[in-house]
Amino acid sequence: MTESATTTTDPEALRTLARSALLSARDRTALLTDSVEDAELTAQVSPLMSPLVWDLAHIGNQEEQWLLRAVAGRDAIRPEIDPLYDAFEHPRAERPSLPLLPPAEARRYAAEVRGRALDVLDAHPFHGSPLTDAGFAFGMIAQHEQQHDETMLITHQLRTGPVALTAPDPDPDPGFTGPAEVLVPGGRFTMGTSTEPWALDNERPAHHRLVPPFVIDTTPVTNGAYRAFVEDGGYDDERWWDPRGWDHIRAHEITAPLFWRREGGQWLRRRFGVTEPVVADEPVLHVGWFEADAYARWAGRRLPTETEWEKAARFDPATGRSTRYPWGDADPTPEHANLGQRHLRPAVAGSYPKGASPLGVRQLIGDVWEWTSSDLLPYPGFVAFPYREYSEVFFGGDYKVLRGGSFAVGAVACRGTFRNWDHPVRRQIFSGFRTARDVTPADGVADGVRPEGA
Fold this sequence. Notes:
Blueprint: H1 11-34, H2 38-42, H3 52-71, H4 103-123, H5 136-158, E1 181-184, E2 187-191, E3 207-211, E4 214-217, H6 223-231, H7 243-251, E5 260-263, E6 266-271, E7 274-277, H8 289-298, H9 306-314, E8 315-316, E9 321-322, E10 369-375, E11 400-403, E12 420-422, E13 431-432, E14 436-438
Parallel strand pairs: 10-13
Antiparallel strand pairs: 1-4, 2-3, 4-14, 5-6, 6-7, 8-9, 10-11, 11-12
């Protein structure tokens, strides 16, 4: 079993894990920002996204504020730039007009902060305050950088010209021939966590949920399955759509997933600057919540709730406990999941059998973020930490929960309890979905919650 932040309490082992996570994130940041000319770093390819140079300096600024100032108590290096890189003070659309640090200066600033932060990491005790217990602040910053790395990869995908990023394709899969859906038994399970030391506040605390039995797709919905919805007139039939979604697709003339187009009787897509045929057996990508919900209705199904998704991903019926990942408690390896920009596309549906849950559900971690039917709300007993703006200000708003991560997510920022969220219209993100349904008499399970232990 791979040693992880939850399988050791040794401060030096935790320190090594934190250093590795920080360095891995910075290597990826460098790849994403060094692969374009300075003019492209400062350009804004979409009002939905920041210029890459903003993300670069923002990464450094967050690291300075939390690791150098909050943890180490050091004076600010560049206090005058704090407002420029405050994500709440300046929406993305207006960031290009700000007096941002130019590329060379942003790189120097981020590198200076990182050098000092590693010195703090080497010397600071991993106890004494909630910020430093088990190295939480260092894990939080590594996750923050990986999240911005995914955001920057989205920016690269939005470019219409050549994209100077390469990665090998996932290994060919012989093709999944298992059952299309899996029955998840009803009963009590533990949702969230109180023990994962680098878990963020919205994942906490662990609490019990009583869940009726349900049936969930074994794999994410594929391009081929979604194409059938498109070609059956799904985007032209109001019956399948949430009223807000119907108004949105009409107003914006949306007729297929983002980056798809039909040409000569064939569906094509643009992927990191290259136009290629849509691969039928890959999970569908770049669909918003309204599209996922409409497909599910068309298919006579529904999106799983967030609780159902987590039970399918974490519940081990043999032991009754909730694991960190579908395959158990060990950290992900390339045999378990498609994570970390190792590939620039999802693997075909049914891949990674070693990453399956005990019930046989596949690809719950990695490949594509999966929309759920749930709004973003706090768990019972939620406490904002270390700042309200990470989660609390988003609760109760126009946000739907996504689970599971994508091929663009760093492993440090992806686990069975990790919660992501976005507006239901968002399609530029690496999002897909799987569907679920209630049990029927044909499933041989009573429609209701099984007694605990049954």
